[in-house]
Amino acid sequence: QVQPVESGGGLVQAGGSLSLSCQASGRTFSGYPMGWFRQAPGKEREFVAAISWSGSPTYYADSVKGRFTISRDNTKNTVYLQMNSLKPEDTSVYYCNRVLGTTAMGSWGKGTLVTVSS
After folding, report:
1. Residue 105 to residue 89: CA distance in whole angstroms
2. How far is CA 64 from CA 41, 44, 67, 69, 81, in A?
3. pLDDT tens, position by position, 36-89
4. Following DSSP, what letter does each residue of the chain receive, concatenated?
């Protein structure tokens, strides 16, 4: 069972940038398409971005398209999410997971909190 470990969250002002990382604990992510999800306080968890096992193609939710970039380094067993032009509405706990399309398929990690101040 692959257990994701997310990191890189923090507090940033609107318009700023953050880079999140997701590493696998246990088994490897290699061979699996991976995705990022987020859950804001009082809301359901939602899809943010996905990437194929090879690194291309990638998919994004309309709300982050053009601002966020998902990437992966299979040699480091790590998936990344570069977030630019952050908005207060991006404030959430961010999680990564194996995906099928935009649906999470594996175990959830603890996530990493991103807070964007206005």
Report:
1. 26
2. 18, 17, 5, 9, 11
3. 999 999 999 999 999 999 999 999 999 999 999 999 999 899 999 999 999 999
4. --EEEEE--EEEETT--EEEEEEEESS--TTS-EEEEEE-TTS--EEEEEE-TTS--EEE-TTTTTTEEEEEETTTTEEEEEE-S--GGG-EEEEEEEEETTEE-S-----EEEEEE-
How far apart CA 40 and CA 21 sit, in angstroms, is: 19
Averaged confidence pLDDT in the chain:
94
76, 21 Cβ separation under 8 angstroms: no
